[in-house]
Amino acid sequence: MRRFFILVLAVVSVIFSAELAWSQGRLLGRVVGGNGEPLAAATVYLSSSTSTQAALSNADGYYVFISVPEGQYNLKAFKRGLPKTEPVSVTITANTTTRKDFILSESGGSVTLLAASKPKEKPAERSVTVAEKPTEKPADRPIAAVTKPRDVQPAEKPAEPAQPAASATTPVEEDEDIKRITAEAEALTSQLNAAVETDVQIQGGIEAVIKKIVYPETAMHMKIEGKVVARVFVDAKGNVIKIDILKSAHELLNEEAVRVLTEETSYVPATAGGKPVAGAITVPLNFKIQKVTW
Asked: Is pTM beyond 0.85 here?
Protein backbone atom coordinates (compact mmCIF):
# COMPACT_ATOMS: atom_id res chain seq x y z
CA MET A 1 0.00 0.00 0.00
CA ARG A 2 2.80 2.36 0.90
CA ARG A 3 4.58 1.66 -2.38
CA PHE A 4 1.37 2.34 -4.28
CA PHE A 5 0.94 5.68 -2.44
CA ILE A 6 4.52 6.71 -3.27
CA LEU A 7 4.01 5.73 -6.90
CA VAL A 8 0.84 7.84 -7.09
CA LEU A 9 2.68 10.84 -5.62
CA ALA A 10 5.48 10.42 -8.17
CA VAL A 11 3.02 10.30 -11.07
CA VAL A 12 1.17 13.39 -9.82
CA SER A 13 4.49 15.22 -9.42
CA VAL A 14 5.53 14.41 -12.98
CA ILE A 15 2.15 15.52 -14.38
CA PHE A 16 2.26 18.75 -12.38
CA SER A 17 5.83 19.51 -13.54
CA ALA A 18 4.87 18.88 -17.16
CA GLU A 19 1.83 21.18 -16.89
CA LEU A 20 3.95 23.86 -15.22
CA ALA A 21 6.58 23.70 -17.97
CA TRP A 22 3.88 23.82 -20.65
CA SER A 23 2.38 26.98 -19.07
CA GLN A 24 5.67 28.85 -19.48
CA GLY A 25 7.12 30.75 -22.39
CA ARG A 26 10.44 32.31 -23.35
CA LEU A 27 11.51 35.90 -23.80
CA LEU A 28 14.72 36.92 -25.52
CA GLY A 29 16.22 39.71 -27.55
CA ARG A 30 19.23 41.90 -28.14
CA VAL A 31 20.44 45.16 -26.59
CA VAL A 32 22.40 47.47 -28.89
CA GLY A 33 23.78 50.99 -28.76
CA GLY A 34 22.79 53.97 -30.86
CA ASN A 35 25.09 52.85 -33.69
CA GLY A 36 23.86 49.26 -33.61
CA GLU A 37 26.82 47.93 -31.61
CA PRO A 38 26.01 45.13 -29.11
CA LEU A 39 25.88 46.18 -25.47
CA ALA A 40 27.14 43.63 -22.95
CA ALA A 41 26.09 43.57 -19.28
CA ALA A 42 22.90 45.55 -19.85
CA THR A 43 20.17 44.66 -17.38
CA VAL A 44 16.77 43.64 -18.76
CA TYR A 45 14.11 43.85 -16.05
CA LEU A 46 10.89 41.84 -16.31
CA SER A 47 8.12 42.30 -13.73
CA SER A 48 4.48 41.58 -13.03
CA SER A 49 2.26 41.46 -9.96
CA THR A 50 3.39 37.89 -9.25
CA SER A 51 6.91 37.56 -10.70
CA THR A 52 10.07 39.65 -11.04
CA GLN A 53 13.21 38.58 -12.90
CA ALA A 54 16.25 40.20 -14.44
CA ALA A 55 18.72 38.97 -17.05
CA LEU A 56 21.99 40.43 -18.28
CA SER A 57 23.00 40.67 -21.92
CA ASN A 58 26.02 38.66 -23.06
CA ALA A 59 29.05 39.84 -25.05
CA ASP A 60 26.95 39.86 -28.24
CA GLY A 61 24.17 41.87 -26.58
CA TYR A 62 21.70 38.97 -26.31
CA TYR A 63 19.58 38.24 -23.23
CA VAL A 64 17.35 35.22 -22.52
CA PHE A 65 14.60 34.39 -20.04
CA ILE A 66 14.28 30.61 -20.38
CA SER A 67 11.17 29.98 -18.25
CA VAL A 68 8.60 32.73 -17.77
CA PRO A 69 5.08 31.98 -16.48
CA GLU A 70 2.53 33.08 -19.04
CA GLY A 71 0.90 36.44 -18.41
CA GLN A 72 1.28 40.19 -18.86
CA TYR A 73 4.58 41.83 -17.88
CA ASN A 74 6.35 45.17 -17.86
CA LEU A 75 9.78 45.15 -19.50
CA LYS A 76 12.61 47.68 -19.42
CA ALA A 77 16.37 47.78 -20.00
CA PHE A 78 19.13 49.84 -18.45
CA LYS A 79 22.90 50.06 -18.35
CA ARG A 80 25.14 52.25 -16.25
CA GLY A 81 25.79 55.58 -17.94
CA LEU A 82 22.84 55.33 -20.33
CA PRO A 83 19.17 56.39 -19.96
CA LYS A 84 16.67 53.68 -19.09
CA THR A 85 13.98 52.70 -21.53
CA GLU A 86 10.42 53.41 -20.49
CA PRO A 87 8.53 50.26 -19.38
CA VAL A 88 6.76 48.47 -22.21
CA SER A 89 4.09 45.80 -21.96
CA VAL A 90 4.81 42.27 -23.17
CA THR A 91 2.56 39.21 -23.16
CA ILE A 92 4.15 35.82 -22.50
CA THR A 93 2.24 32.91 -24.01
CA ALA A 94 2.74 29.26 -23.07
CA ASN A 95 5.14 27.29 -25.30
CA THR A 96 5.94 30.44 -27.27
CA THR A 97 9.13 32.44 -27.76
CA THR A 98 8.76 36.23 -27.83
CA ARG A 99 11.53 38.61 -28.87
CA LYS A 100 12.04 42.22 -27.86
CA ASP A 101 15.12 44.19 -28.89
CA PHE A 102 16.35 47.34 -27.17
CA ILE A 103 18.33 50.35 -28.37
CA LEU A 104 20.13 52.22 -25.59
CA SER A 105 21.98 55.44 -26.39
CA GLU A 106 22.84 58.74 -24.74
CA SER A 107 19.94 60.35 -26.62
CA GLY A 108 17.40 57.90 -25.18
CA GLY A 109 16.18 54.32 -25.39
CA SER A 110 13.64 52.46 -27.48
CA VAL A 111 12.29 48.96 -27.79
CA THR A 112 11.19 46.93 -30.81
CA LEU A 113 8.92 43.87 -30.79
CA LEU A 114 9.74 41.18 -33.35
CA ALA A 115 7.78 38.12 -34.37
CA ALA A 116 6.80 35.58 -31.75
CA SER A 117 6.98 31.89 -32.53
CA LYS A 118 6.03 28.47 -31.19
CA PRO A 119 9.19 26.32 -31.21
CA LYS A 120 7.32 23.01 -30.91
CA GLU A 121 5.14 23.67 -33.95
CA LYS A 122 5.79 24.63 -37.52
CA PRO A 123 6.41 28.39 -37.31
CA ALA A 124 4.05 30.78 -39.02
CA GLU A 125 5.18 34.22 -40.04
CA ARG A 126 3.60 37.06 -38.19
CA SER A 127 3.57 40.78 -38.72
CA VAL A 128 5.78 42.93 -36.53
CA THR A 129 4.45 45.33 -33.95
CA VAL A 130 5.57 48.87 -34.67
CA ALA A 131 8.29 50.02 -32.32
CA GLU A 132 7.08 52.39 -29.66
CA LYS A 133 8.18 55.98 -30.03
CA PRO A 134 10.94 56.83 -27.54
CA THR A 135 9.82 59.19 -24.84
CA GLU A 136 11.40 62.60 -24.37
CA LYS A 137 10.87 62.46 -20.64
CA PRO A 138 14.23 61.89 -18.90
CA ALA A 139 14.51 58.60 -17.04
CA ASP A 140 14.30 58.91 -13.26
CA ARG A 141 17.52 58.17 -11.41
CA PRO A 142 17.29 57.09 -7.77
CA ILE A 143 18.75 59.48 -5.20
CA ALA A 144 20.62 58.10 -2.24
CA ALA A 145 19.34 58.36 1.27
CA VAL A 146 22.77 57.51 2.64
CA THR A 147 25.10 58.75 -0.05
CA LYS A 148 25.58 61.89 -2.09
CA PRO A 149 22.72 62.34 -4.60
CA ARG A 150 23.57 61.85 -8.23
CA ASP A 151 23.13 64.59 -10.79
CA VAL A 152 20.49 63.78 -13.37
CA GLN A 153 21.05 65.03 -16.89
CA PRO A 154 17.91 65.41 -19.01
CA ALA A 155 17.89 63.20 -22.06
CA GLU A 156 18.01 65.01 -25.39
CA LYS A 157 15.44 64.31 -28.06
CA PRO A 158 16.35 60.83 -29.36
CA ALA A 159 17.32 60.30 -32.95
CA GLU A 160 15.36 57.88 -35.06
CA PRO A 161 16.30 54.36 -33.83
CA ALA A 162 18.16 52.09 -36.22
CA GLN A 163 16.35 49.06 -37.58
CA PRO A 164 16.94 45.91 -35.51
CA ALA A 165 19.38 43.43 -36.95
CA ALA A 166 16.88 40.55 -37.09
CA SER A 167 14.24 40.39 -39.81
CA ALA A 168 10.74 41.23 -38.61
CA THR A 169 9.21 38.41 -40.65
CA THR A 170 11.72 35.71 -39.71
CA PRO A 171 10.39 33.38 -37.00
CA VAL A 172 12.60 33.38 -33.91
CA GLU A 173 13.58 29.72 -34.11
CA GLU A 174 15.04 30.13 -37.63
CA ASP A 175 17.62 32.66 -36.40
CA GLU A 176 20.94 30.84 -35.88
CA ASP A 177 22.07 33.34 -33.25
CA ILE A 178 18.87 32.77 -31.30
CA LYS A 179 19.35 28.99 -31.49
CA ARG A 180 22.88 29.39 -30.17
CA ILE A 181 22.14 31.70 -27.25
CA THR A 182 19.10 29.63 -26.25
CA ALA A 183 21.20 26.45 -26.20
CA GLU A 184 23.88 28.24 -24.15
CA ALA A 185 21.28 29.49 -21.68
CA GLU A 186 19.79 26.01 -21.29
CA ALA A 187 23.22 24.49 -20.72
CA LEU A 188 24.06 27.13 -18.14
CA THR A 189 20.75 26.54 -16.38
CA SER A 190 21.64 22.84 -16.09
CA GLN A 191 25.02 23.75 -14.61
CA LEU A 192 23.33 25.93 -11.99
CA ASN A 193 21.46 22.88 -10.73
CA ALA A 194 24.66 20.88 -10.17
CA ALA A 195 26.13 20.36 -6.70
CA VAL A 196 28.95 22.68 -5.59
CA GLU A 197 31.60 22.52 -2.87
CA THR A 198 31.58 26.22 -2.02
CA ASP A 199 28.80 28.67 -2.77
CA VAL A 200 29.00 32.01 -4.53
CA GLN A 201 30.28 34.78 -2.29
CA ILE A 202 30.09 38.58 -2.44
CA GLN A 203 33.43 40.36 -2.55
CA GLY A 204 33.58 42.55 0.54
CA GLY A 205 30.53 40.87 2.06
CA ILE A 206 26.98 42.19 2.30
CA GLU A 207 28.32 45.47 3.71
CA ALA A 208 29.81 46.24 0.29
CA VAL A 209 26.34 45.94 -1.23
CA ILE A 210 24.68 48.13 1.40
CA LYS A 211 27.18 50.94 0.79
CA LYS A 212 26.18 51.08 -2.87
CA ILE A 213 22.42 51.25 -2.28
CA VAL A 214 20.82 54.44 -3.60
CA TYR A 215 17.46 54.75 -1.86
CA PRO A 216 14.89 55.78 -4.51
CA GLU A 217 13.85 59.40 -3.95
CA THR A 218 10.17 58.70 -4.60
CA ALA A 219 10.27 55.83 -2.11
CA MET A 220 11.76 58.14 0.50
CA HIS A 221 9.13 60.83 -0.01
CA MET A 222 6.35 58.23 0.18
CA LYS A 223 8.06 56.52 3.15
CA ILE A 224 8.12 53.20 1.32
CA GLU A 225 10.02 50.45 3.10
CA GLY A 226 10.27 46.71 2.62
CA LYS A 227 12.43 43.62 2.30
CA VAL A 228 13.70 42.26 -1.02
CA VAL A 229 15.17 38.76 -1.22
CA ALA A 230 17.04 38.10 -4.45
CA ARG A 231 18.55 34.91 -5.83
CA VAL A 232 21.62 35.93 -7.85
CA PHE A 233 22.95 33.46 -10.44
CA VAL A 234 26.64 33.81 -11.31
CA ASP A 235 28.75 32.09 -13.98
CA ALA A 236 32.19 30.53 -13.51
CA LYS A 237 33.85 33.91 -14.15
CA GLY A 238 31.88 35.68 -11.45
CA ASN A 239 29.56 37.48 -13.88
CA VAL A 240 25.86 37.83 -13.05
CA ILE A 241 23.67 35.79 -15.39
CA LYS A 242 20.24 36.50 -13.99
CA ILE A 243 18.35 37.42 -10.84
CA ASP A 244 15.11 36.00 -9.47
CA ILE A 245 13.26 38.05 -6.86
CA LEU A 246 12.15 35.48 -4.26
CA LYS A 247 10.50 38.02 -1.97
CA SER A 248 9.19 41.16 -3.56
CA ALA A 249 8.69 44.63 -2.06
CA HIS A 250 7.59 47.82 -3.82
CA GLU A 251 8.62 48.01 -7.49
CA LEU A 252 10.99 50.91 -6.74
CA LEU A 253 12.84 48.84 -4.13
CA ASN A 254 12.90 45.72 -6.32
CA GLU A 255 14.48 47.67 -9.17
CA GLU A 256 17.11 49.25 -6.93
CA ALA A 257 18.00 45.84 -5.50
CA VAL A 258 18.48 44.48 -9.03
CA ARG A 259 20.55 47.52 -10.05
CA VAL A 260 22.95 47.34 -7.12
CA LEU A 261 23.34 43.55 -7.38
CA THR A 262 24.11 43.69 -11.11
CA GLU A 263 26.03 46.95 -11.52
CA GLU A 264 27.67 47.60 -8.16
CA THR A 265 28.49 44.17 -6.76
CA SER A 266 31.39 41.79 -7.49
CA TYR A 267 31.18 38.06 -6.87
CA VAL A 268 33.47 35.12 -6.20
CA PRO A 269 32.15 32.12 -8.19
CA ALA A 270 31.18 28.81 -6.64
CA THR A 271 33.62 25.91 -6.84
CA ALA A 272 33.36 22.19 -7.57
CA GLY A 273 36.31 19.83 -7.82
CA GLY A 274 38.59 22.73 -6.97
CA LYS A 275 37.50 24.70 -10.04
CA PRO A 276 35.20 27.71 -10.40
CA VAL A 277 31.71 26.83 -11.63
CA ALA A 278 28.35 28.51 -12.06
CA GLY A 279 26.35 28.91 -8.87
CA ALA A 280 23.98 31.14 -6.96
CA ILE A 281 23.64 33.15 -3.78
CA THR A 282 20.57 34.41 -1.95
CA VAL A 283 20.81 38.04 -0.85
CA PRO A 284 18.23 39.63 1.51
CA LEU A 285 18.08 43.44 1.58
CA ASN A 286 15.91 45.22 4.12
CA PHE A 287 15.09 48.76 2.95
CA LYS A 288 14.40 51.29 5.70
CA ILE A 289 14.41 55.06 5.43
CA GLN A 290 17.92 56.39 6.09
CA LYS A 291 19.16 52.81 6.48
CA VAL A 292 19.51 49.65 4.43
CA THR A 293 20.24 46.48 6.36
CA TRP A 294 20.84 42.83 5.71
From this structure: no
